[in-house]
Amino acid sequence: MSQTLPATIPASLFEACADSIADTARELSALGWTPATSSNFSMRIDAEHAAITVSGRHKGRLGRDDIMLIDLDGHAVGTEARPSAETALHTQIYRRWPEMRAVLHTHSRTQSVASRLFAGDGVIRLQGWELQKAITGYHTHESTLEIPVFPNTQHMPELVAQIDAWLDAGKPLHAYLIDGHGIYTWGRDMAETQRHLEALEFLLGCELDLKKLRAS
Ligand SMILES: CSCCC(=O)C(=O)COP(=O)(O)O
Ligand SMILES: [Zn+2]
Predict the structure, then answer these.
(1) Model's pTM, two decimal places?
(2) All domains of the chain, ordered by start, with CATH?
(3) Cα distances (angstroms) measured from residue 159 to each of 20, 175, 176, 177, 179
(4) pLDDT tens digits for 144-184?
(5) pLDDT tens digits, one per residue of 88-99
(6) How many Å lie between the centroid of ligand 2 and the Cα of residue 37?
(7) 176 with 150: CB under 8 angstroms?
(8) Residues whose CB is under 5 A from ligand 2 (ion)?
(9) Distance from the CA of 38 to the center of ligand 1, in angstroms?
């Protein structure tokens, strides 16, 4: 894939973001969280652009050519490549929060099962877990961390509207699940975003275990 950059974006900046995305994706794939080409990843480049994974690539085997530039309307910039089918969910985060610089979306088994199990409630309420403190802004296990579960759809504007409605109601949002699909989370840099993702994977696993044990 050939990527031409606007004069305002240094190649070194784009390449550093592409490498960070590819390295993180390889780690997440090794954990089994990105099966069968699923999942997508991005990093903000500047106020108007982000680097994002090309659609359909295996996320465990990404190189620089598998990451492309988009504007925050989701259009490809300087390339014929096709950005992630879920680009609108990434650009929504960058447009709403200028301080957010990385978005990770994965499809682990735990995330997928939890999304189905809690879809009826529309939300998973995490309470009493020390690891909630891995989420920026949470300082005690006594807090309640709400992870909404939105119905899945192939029509991205519908998903964007559901997320906008949650936020417009003034509710905090650090991550969400999509029913039968996976999780989205974000942060001010890749390390914070990866920490959020790892914590949420762990916490969702704990909730699933508790449900099983209580039912037995
Ligand atoms: C084969 S997984 C279905 C699409 C999906 O949910 C996903 O995360 C990957 O889509 P992309 O276009 O970003 O490769
Ligand atoms: Zn997906």
Answers:
(1) 0.98
(2) 11-215 (3.40.225.10)
(3) 27, 14, 11, 11, 11
(4) 999 999 999 999 999 999 999 999 999 999 999 999 999 99
(5) 999 999 999 999
(6) 9
(7) yes
(8) 182
(9) 4
